[in-house]
Input
Amino acid sequence: MNIIWLGHASFRIEIAGQTLLVDPWLTGNPMLKTSDRDAAIHGATHILITHAHGDHASDAVELAKSQNIPIVGQYDLVGLWERTQGITGIGFNKGGTVDLNGVHVTMVHAVHSSTIGADDQLLHGGSECGFMISGENRTIYLSGDTDVMADMEIFNDLHAPDIGILAAGGHFTMDMKRAAYAAKRFFNFKTVIPCHYRTFPLLEQNAQVLIDALPDVNVIEPDVLKPITFN
Output
């Protein structure tokens, strides 16, 4: 299994024979070179979207069409794109699980917002979420954009994820201190990968606070397009 950061909150996850693009913000992402786009999307089988904000979802429809693959995400948002954009979608909702050819994805709650900018207006874009992604005898908790929630204790009880991909840049999501609190208070992660940071000066620029707070956890600061491999 490989987890590959594409910058910001975008990931390529190669698991159980599937290649998932999670929140693939490729166009305009300052951390991903235009020349690396093909490598980022090569062989993708599904697109997972946590919410409608442009730094997570702006490339989703184009990729679904050009790669002929489905968008997997919250029912209302995916349904909107199916009706208006003609994409293939797998829409479900919080608490639901879908089987992506052997990779099981459960949608879980997040605390954020989800809007689409259109004609100088903000339109409702379904509901924000996170995912539990299971395959190859591992479970990844991908938090999506969220703050700390007491719900996380239930997530751990139900799914026992060993890998956490946590939005931790602050301002729009948890910062490193709050992400560390969530990891210690609610989970038993073996590995934590921070994201949604370093992209802009407004966000946290390193994960040292997270590393220092989790001495018994392998906290990995990802590099763009460098695989983090789990055997």
About this structure: The chain has one domain: 2-223. The mean pLDDT is 97. The first strand starts at residue 2 and ends at 5. Helices lie at 37-41, 54-57, 60-67, 75-85, 151-159, 176-186, 208-213.
